[in-house]
Design goal:
Elements (H helix, E strand, L loop, with lengths): L3 E5 L9 H15 L3 E8 L10 E12 L2 E7 L3 H12 L3 E5 L6 H8 L4 E5 L7 H15 L3 E4 L2 H8 L7 E2 L25 E5 L8 H13 L5 E5 L5 H7 L8 E5 L6 H7 L2 E4 L9 H9 L3 E4 L2 H4 L9 E3 L4 H13 L1 H15 L4 H22 L17
Parallel strand pairs: 1-2, 1-5, 2-3, 5-6, 6-7, 7-8, 9-10, 9-12, 10-11, 12-13, 13-14
Antiparallel strand pairs: 3-4
Helix pairs in contact: 1-13, 2-3, 6-11, 9-12
Length: 392
């Protein structure tokens, strides 16, 4: 039986990142199965045109936290507008991403009278806020009918503060979009080995360490080109780091559109993601692996959910520039190793198609809508009076 599903998320287009990709892919997959899906998020642009299946309320503010840029929704009467949207939509289930994040996710849990499913996406490098807010957040956490996380690392981060069952449903990869056999971009197909990074230029992504490792290899006389896809607040600092030995070796490509991104992966002789902390799941690793690019990443719990060291990728300690440089050199000089890792990476990526993720989510949605009343009665909304407007 088709479901009416509301997906509440503060990270959504035009914002880029794993949450946006997850919401887009699962919403599309659910609609393809005949379900009615509305994405509820905030406005990022004042002139944004209406979008089918998307409801935008409030305005987005980018806040630095946990070594990354985070989206927070501001506006008057957010709780009331959410409550009205839930009533008007008559949804069977509300799926809330990053459910304990202010403001939209927390408000959604507070006002929803439908069963709610929460999905945690992050690993905190600083858990003091959760420890301080554990008591007031506990009742909100318990309003969720089911809790999921995108990886073991994300699950462990949640249960450290809020014990209880958390089902791991991983991120996925679009295996039609990211696939072996794509043509490299012609302007990089000149015999010079290409090292690729894709992601936001956030402090936790380890880009200064990557540039220092690249400088070591440059001074050793190794031929390669470093291609950086993405943007962010570290860009000026990174550009300054390329004024010395790395001059002419590093290309800043900025943000790349949806259709062209797979060909950047196909261009890579090595894909490198040297994050230093805070990664709950290696979505960019999966994209690279699905195309067949050999992966070099740091040994973080979230990345170990995707990559097995020396099997379908290489993992090195985070912040260890000499180890990163040595591993990168080894890959650039060993074509056989690159081919072996690339082939095994394709096999790994095939286990993470979005179809599997959507099937698992539907299993949870049908569970909470089909028997939630008997198993766990829905708690009433936090108040019976009209919602209190949120002032900003």
């Amino acid at each position: 039986m088709p479901l009416r599903i509301a997906i509440v998320t503060q990270a959504y287009r035009p914002a880029v990142g794993g949450v946006t990709e997850h919401v887009d892919a699962t919403a599309r997959g659910l609609r393809e199965r005949g379900h009615d899906v509305t994405v509820i998020t905030s406005r990022f642009e004042r002139s944004a045109a209406p979008e089918p299946g998307v409801l935008r309320i409030g305005w987005n503010l980018v806040v630095p936290y946990n070594g990354a840029e985070n989206n927070v929704t501001l506006g008057l009467g957010l709780a009331g507008r959410l409550d009205a949207a839930f009533r008007r939509g008559r949804y069977d289930v509300v799926h809330v991403h990053c459910p304990l994040s202010p403001t939209l996710p927390l408000l959604a849990l507070r006002v929803a009278r439908q069963p709610t499913v929460g999905t945690f996406h992050t690993v905190s490098s600083w858990d003091l806020p959760f420890r301080l807010l554990r008591a007031p957040l506990g009742p909100v956490f318990r309003r969720m009918a089911r809790v999921t996380a995108v990886s073991d690392a994300a699950r462990d981060d949640v249960t450290r503060h809020f014990p209880g069952p958390v089902r791991v449903i991983p991120n996925g990869v679009d295996l039609d979009r990211f696939r072996p056999g794509l043509r490299p971009l012609p302007r990089f197909d000149d015999g010079i080995p290409n090292v690729l990074f894709v992601g936001r230029f956030d402090p936790r992504k380890g880009l200064p360490e990557l540039l220092r490792a690249a400088e070591i290899l440059t001074l050793e006389g190794l031929r390669f080109r470093l291609i950086l896809v993405g943007d962010g607040r570290l860009r000026e600092r990174l550009e300054r780091m390329t004024h010395g030995p790395l001059r002419g070796r590093v290309l800043f490509e900025g943000r790349v559109d949806h259709d062209r991104l797979p060909r950047y992966y196909a261009t890579a002789d090595v894909f490198c993601s040297p994050a230093v902390s805070g990664e709950s799941f290696g979505l960019v690793l999966l994209e690279a692996m699905a195309v067949g690019a050999p992966v070099l990443a740091t040994d973080l719990p979230g990345y170990r959910c995707v990559v097995t060291n020396d099997s379908d990728g290489i993992l090195v300690p985070p912040r260890d520039v000499p180890a990163l440089a040595a591993a990168l050199k080894g890959l650039l000089l060993d074509l056989g190793l690159r081919r072996r890792l690339g082939a095994r990476g394709v096999e790994t990526a095939r286990r993470f198609g979005w179809d599997r993720v959507v099937d698992e989510l539907l299993d949870v949605f049908h569970d909470v809508t089909g028997s939630a009343a008997e198993r766990r009665p829905l708690r009433p909304a936090a108040r019976d009076a009209p919602p209190t407007p949120v002032s900003v």
